[in-house]
Amino acid sequence: MEIELRENLIEASQAQPGITVREGSERSYPDLEFEGDFLGGGFRAVDIKCARRKTPNRLNNSVALYTGNTWFLWPQLKFGGILRPFDEYEEHIAVLVMYLFDPTVPERIKDVVVAVHETWRLASKRRASATREYIGSVTAVDALVDGRGEFEAASDFYDYWRSSARRWKDSPEAKKLLRRALEDKG
Fold this sequence. Notes:
Blueprint: H1 2-14, E1 20-23, E2 32-35, E3 43-55, E4 58-59, E5 64-67, E6 89-101, E7 109-118, E8 123-127, E9 134-137, H2 141-146, H3 154-163, H4 172-185
Parallel strand pairs: 3-6
Antiparallel strand pairs: 1-2, 2-3, 3-4, 5-9, 6-7, 8-9
């Protein structure tokens, strides 16, 4: 589902003059990067997520929106697995495809609902995993569709998650990049 949506977004953008699209790899951020005069200049990060619903209005689990202890926490650094530093994007957009699993139909999914918002609008104040360093989404489908996460403004979201850094596990890659950046300035 995610691959087909990615291909459709690429095809649609190629039909629009003034937009250039770049694809990330399977395990990178973002899935797609858009730039061009049509968008007002600058880069836009688009991350595609698919989530199974437990009930018609609730996800099985929180969606992992960002990895909190690397490129999100240190937005000025270029990490492996990200096309450019997080801060170089004008916008971060999440395309969230939510579905009900049904093994009795050939497609095995039904009742697909799509939400497209700036990523912070989908965020909760909880991690998406107890064992990984992921920032989680809210799980109510209507809140996701409406872009009603737990934050009133983007600044509230970034302040909350970046100030909670003391709770993130250390990232060896972040330490290496920070050390290199400090040495380059020295």
